[in-house]
Amino acid sequence: MELRRWPRKNDPESIRARQDALAPRLDGGGEVFSHDLAPFAQATEALTGVALVPVAVVGPLDVELGDYELEEPEGGLAERGRAQEGVYVPLANTEGGLSISLYRGARAVGDSGGFRTYVLKDRITRASAFLFTDVAAATSFARWIETQAAHMRAWLEGDPIPGLSRHAVLREIETHVVGPVCHVMYAFTTGDACGMNMITRNSYALNQGYVLERAPDRPRRAMLEGNMGGDKKISHRYFERGGHGKTVIAECTLTEDAVRRVLKTTIDDLLELAFVGTHGAVASGMQSVAFTPATAIAALFTATGQDIGMVGTSSMAHGTAHRVEKGLHVAMRLASLEVATVGGGTTLPYARSWLRLMDCAGPGKVYRLAQIVAAATLALEISASAAMATAGSENFYRAHFERGGLR
Amino acid sequence: MELRRWPRKNDPESIRARQDALAPRLDGGGEVFSHDLAPFAQATEALTGVALVPVAVVGPLDVELGDYELEEPEGGLAERGRAQEGVYVPLANTEGGLSISLYRGARAVGDSGGFRTYVLKDRITRASAFLFTDVAAATSFARWIETQAAHMRAWLEGDPIPGLSRHAVLREIETHVVGPVCHVMYAFTTGDACGMNMITRNSYALNQGYVLERAPDRPRRAMLEGNMGGDKKISHRYFERGGHGKTVIAECTLTEDAVRRVLKTTIDDLLELAFVGTHGAVASGMQSVAFTPATAIAALFTATGQDIGMVGTSSMAHGTAHRVEKGLHVAMRLASLEVATVGGGTTLPYARSWLRLMDCAGPGKVYRLAQIVAAATLALEISASAAMATAGSENFYRAHFERGGLR
Amino acid sequence: MELRRWPRKNDPESIRARQDALAPRLDGGGEVFSHDLAPFAQATEALTGVALVPVAVVGPLDVELGDYELEEPEGGLAERGRAQEGVYVPLANTEGGLSISLYRGARAVGDSGGFRTYVLKDRITRASAFLFTDVAAATSFARWIETQAAHMRAWLEGDPIPGLSRHAVLREIETHVVGPVCHVMYAFTTGDACGMNMITRNSYALNQGYVLERAPDRPRRAMLEGNMGGDKKISHRYFERGGHGKTVIAECTLTEDAVRRVLKTTIDDLLELAFVGTHGAVASGMQSVAFTPATAIAALFTATGQDIGMVGTSSMAHGTAHRVEKGLHVAMRLASLEVATVGGGTTLPYARSWLRLMDCAGPGKVYRLAQIVAAATLALEISASAAMATAGSENFYRAHFERGGLR
Amino acid sequence: MELRRWPRKNDPESIRARQDALAPRLDGGGEVFSHDLAPFAQATEALTGVALVPVAVVGPLDVELGDYELEEPEGGLAERGRAQEGVYVPLANTEGGLSISLYRGARAVGDSGGFRTYVLKDRITRASAFLFTDVAAATSFARWIETQAAHMRAWLEGDPIPGLSRHAVLREIETHVVGPVCHVMYAFTTGDACGMNMITRNSYALNQGYVLERAPDRPRRAMLEGNMGGDKKISHRYFERGGHGKTVIAECTLTEDAVRRVLKTTIDDLLELAFVGTHGAVASGMQSVAFTPATAIAALFTATGQDIGMVGTSSMAHGTAHRVEKGLHVAMRLASLEVATVGGGTTLPYARSWLRLMDCAGPGKVYRLAQIVAAATLALEISASAAMATAGSENFYRAHFERGGLR
What we know:
Largest sheet of chain A: 9 strands, mixed
Distance between the termini of chain A: 36 Å
Number of helices of chain A: 13
Shape of chain A: globular
Order of helices and strands of chain A: HEEHEHHEEHEHEHHHHEEHHH
Oligomer: homotetramer
């Protein structure tokens, strides 16, 4: 077949045509075509079959969650209360040892009083870029647009163009001039959605309907995204400051007893590992300090319909371990955790059910989900670190030897 | 329930116990428990249900693939030939517009002569760390161990310890001394597996059975991984040099005609976008230059049973666009693409079938898979860039407006 | 002699004692002791002799300088006017070819209409750190202190403690919580001084006299600097955002004619170099894009009594080259240029004279100096790039071959 | 005057003409013209006057230095012996408190048994770049040139072209292909010179006389430097791996007693500072972990005629602090310390004398100098850290308050 003749629609005939064309190549693997695709017809063009990933569930994790609300109009987060809960986490994965290790970490934390989690920031950024002939115009434009955030927010609220999202609220504008280009970071909040789609539409509207109409210095060219926006590529900007999702921290103070009994190591050994691992991270140019945050985040994202392309950016992590009077304080900061409880993949079967398991489906749940992900990530980090901290990292080896699973 | 009582085994009773305990929380979402879990019993502890992700298929992509073999004992890659093919790519995703965009990029490339792909390097690294009392001992140890790579390779081949992998062949050792610590980067090849499990076992054996037995300077402590190994965290080391998977480049020279007709833009406009986007990447501290490589990689990884936790590291990308006589040369370098065609999730139903679709299942196929992933990633990059390069990025906006899919 | 007996004072006897003790080691090199040290007695303890560096002067550079003023109380920069001037730049250096190359770059720019320079931001930051027992306290503290900037500014103005600087005006506070630590970035303006000394004293006063007295969450420990302050170490934070000195951009649009006649190359060749060099910078993990900004900055800093330890941070540069209708637009952004026209080494003979040469000595001159440094840096960058852009970089080679100077 | 008429030569008339033209601008500051410039006539074109910087001397520092030799032909470093010495260090600076602080750090180390220093690597890199039409050619070229290092070394030894340096010995070649470009890192040793001039000439010869003559794939364009060479811009490549100067580590194990008595703090307090400062460095995107290495390096570089433009790159530092049985182990790794004892500014009066003070002038001394710089840098780091580690960093504040010097 020629590529140009490949059917892209999702009517039953097109789906069937694709399946028929491909079946001979599968060598019997017809299971991928054996599911009802109707619920997924809006999810992707050229829909043809399914992937199925096994899901482990571990719980209940003992987590003290904050209850957060956005303050208007600045969009800061106010903590309305805190409550301790037991939460079950669904882990879509095929990595033997992952769920048992996360379980062990959660037990050590549970025996030490549980996780506590905090949401520090909520923003999602589209960084448009405006190209001028020289720096003079770009800086003059920057000075102008920096004064426009409130007007732009109001303009968007007036619904000036069809197709805009009311959920995507512009909060701040930051500019960055380099050469003849003025990058404009539009920072939004987007309710319980991840919001890339919303902010793409609203930013386009701002650029075309507001900026190009009113800017005293007319740019030669406007680009919706000039690559300072942090979407799906790790960057220091978003590691340090957040701004592409939720900035969340999970913490726990592990007791000596839990470290010894559950984690089979000592605080001193964990601190030596932290010393070695932190400096190893720096030496190799990691833009994070952690052992394995992406593992837990990937498992939770896959189960709950998050954007898998955001596993890397959502895993920008800064872990710390510090001895305090009561034991070992450990914390994990996730700078830009891109989670949603509405929209996109979260609306589909399976994903929606796994969100429900955590009471995270639908509106009003996104800060809850962010905190649970952070707690689960810290649970796995603690356990993997403990295994690594044993003499010769024997327990880490054993986990791979005995539970490596699918070799 | 208490966490400590949560059943972790995968016998039918334990699975059922977990499902029964959780069912009330799902609010009817029983579809997650409705599949036969037997094929997945080895995949994860605490197996409880499944996640299901819709898969689009696009093709055939026109790709000239290299045929590569490892040279012994150095482990360099020899190109044995090149052949042009049509390849169908399975994209597990819920992002409206992704597959149609990748399709469009592939068409522009097809009309320009097709993709060409190259594998430059194949290594997977475990970076153990040895802690001493001072720098003197650490540097002396470093000088010793740097001379041991060939002996270690031979020692591993002698199968000195049960449970080692014969597929994980040690190729080089590099050291890095910082403070009283000597980090030792063991660089392996692992056949067609991703190989983290293998190299964990073999590195443990090296540390315990070889190093600690023979090192003139005995370390105070050996750690299997000291965080210079590049596993699941982006780092400059592995972005620049590869060493955690395959280093692959895909390229194409787009013709003026294909750019205009298929991509609806111009070479000049694409070059202006490249100018803005490259400097935007630098300004925001991205350790890559690209727009959206993780999107394609995530979709292919999810469909084919790769480790989803490696989406971020596998997406470390360096894209370029350069005008040449015949049009616009575009290329995408993926420094550390962590793919497998045997082992782990690739052995499971669904994943195996999607691998078969690309003739990438089983031994001898991993370089093929790496190249196809690179080509697909470049296809999407081209199309997304073209949409962004239109006036005001109108076409990028339209894609989100019209195909946003699941809002 | 024993270290503990080494005289540290600067009275004539102590100076002489040091000189006498060291003279035998100099093998006749008494010139280092042959100068009157009295003018330098306040500059450093254990004053013993001098270093002498030859200074080239090149000019007049044709520069259009902005006239800037700080706006109160926000501390933004208002441009009051612009004027074109001819400026002579003193270059303390021993690098054959440097001054002649900068001269050539300046000529090409002069023939193209001259440099234009802009100051975008002025801040200097001390990042204190407050250590708590847990994240809960650190985040609660962060929320409190973020509201205190205006009160703190007023408190400092009340001169609550002897020894504070009135020139160091607190402008904003930003916090960063990682683990149980709250980093607090105090961003000041410091008039025409570099200001590290001032802001150290004022930050100490804030920490001890304000924060520890009033914070609802009392920290376990306050540290004046927790290493987020950007002092003398390159960091992405200060490369992107500025905040440790002046953010300045110099630009010029080179004409085809000047490129050909003066620079002996072509715009196409310069653009190919920019393509290669920009991607080479990314590939090697440079936190900048430029060829040789530190060369010009070092020469100007050494001549004018700036802090030589800040050459690296002041050289964080982002250079661009972009074809426009009238030729090749080139620009150099210096994110954190740490210059002073009062205080520190600028008050000493020689330094003060070289500042006078540029009409940059004393109060009210610091933005002028920053702009001249940026223009000179761009001049050298243009010329070095042009030499590199010739076929095989022959002209770059020739400059090193013929003018290498002191081999 | 017009720029084009500015005299650039260094004959007495030209010098005088420049001085006469500029004198009216100096407002009496004729001291800059009052020195005999004859000794500096080869140092820079457009020589016009001098800068003079006061120099403190502190010592004797108690350092155990390694005696190193290059092994042929690989260019590895062999340690031939170690010897303890007392060394005086000249610090050209105008920063009140610097020399007294370095003195204090040296005392604490002296009381703890002295510094020990190690040179791990010696290389200086020129990274030429070869531009092709596509990746196919660039990768094919890379495979070829990687096999040519030994032949190239021999070719250079045959002195095929006038003006080459025999001191610059090619050791290895590494390639990096990105897009249609093959970067070629030529790694040299250059004896006791810094060597940028030498390797520029030799690399040009290699490119023009060897590569372009013999490469099976002829590049469209050769550039002497494509910006992967690490010259004067900080980069992760050279921070991690060295390759632009000497990789040196200095260490000491501070006793409890010295920490308390001399440094006025405790090991626990220093460790808390290290915890905060290391994570602060990561959070702000520093490509180093240290407080103030550039301060000591700048002072030594200015005194001894090193290239001031290399202060930033030479200061890429990785400091560690770790509790061991006997006290607190501290170490400072300088990855790419660019020092020379012959050539360039080191040949001039003043610089040469200050080098003699340390017995570091002339051939055979460069590893000695590198080690002394590292020890001095660690001395200052220890003392500054100790001041910062006191309660509220009071002692750091006091140093700035009492010794700020020139306000």
